[in-house]
Amino acid sequence: MNFFKGSNIKHFLTSLEKDSYPMKPCSKDDISKLINISPTRTLPQTYLDFMNKAGNGIEFLVGTNYSMNYIFDLKEWAIELLEENNSIKKLTDNQFIFMMHQGYMFWFFNLNEGDDPAVYSYNESVELDDFNKVSDTLSDFLISLYD
To answer: Where does the secretion signal sit in this chain (predicted)?
Structure first.
């Protein structure tokens, strides 16, 4: 099954579900915790849709921390990673860390960029003056990890 840039995350996840692809959804309580993560900011709908279907595990993300077991620690870990590497980059309250891999790289989106925001990354092995934009949309980013 191939998905291409511009696919809708709901369509993508529904297709995986129909093919019995291994994934574990978040509970209603988990989704409620995510929705209430900040009193002043809301998480993008694309992210909530993904977590609703696969927020407690999906096969193509094995080894990557993104699930409910880790989500509330990721920002702290990302800040620690930046500090350990003496990075001049700083994270703001507007940036939501949604995924970290092996403790050396993380991905985030800006909370004020709508329901399918761009995705940015930090990788300790790459020297850049700013965070690296890796995708124009969260949907494309997540689907690309599968493709």
So the answer is: none
